[in-house]
Specification:
Shape: globular
Strand content: 15-25%
Number of strands: 4
Structural class: alpha/beta
Order of helices and strands: EEHEHEH
Strand order of the largest sheet: 1-2-3-4
């Protein structure tokens, strides 16, 4: 079996609780392949050593893909990220 290198774009840590979160970032300005890769990224996150989310932004995500991504519970829009992080870390 091939070993795959996995990269987390950003790791956010709370020093008090020790809670950590991996963040993968995806931007889609126009329709294209970025939205097609996100489902694989969500599956890949299951192999991360810490919990993770995918942060998305841009006008290029189709309505169908937006619905799917939001239904996973693993994707958040960049505009909602601050509120999401406050809830996750209990701030």
């Amino acid at each position: 079996m091939w070993e795959q290198q996995r990269y987390i774009d950003v790791v956010i840590s709370d020093e008090k609780s020790g809670k950590r979160l991996g963040v993968k970032c995806k931007f889609q300005a126009t329709s294209g392949t970025a939205e097609e890769k996100i489902p694989a990224t969500i599956q890949d996150m299951e192999h991360w050593p810490i919990p993770g989310i995918v942060v998305i932004d841009g006008e290029g995500f189709s309505k169908n893909m937006q619905g799917y991504l939001m239904s996973t519970g693993k994707v958040v829009w960049f505009s909602d990220l601050e509120d999401w992080l406050r809830l996750y870390f209990g701030l």
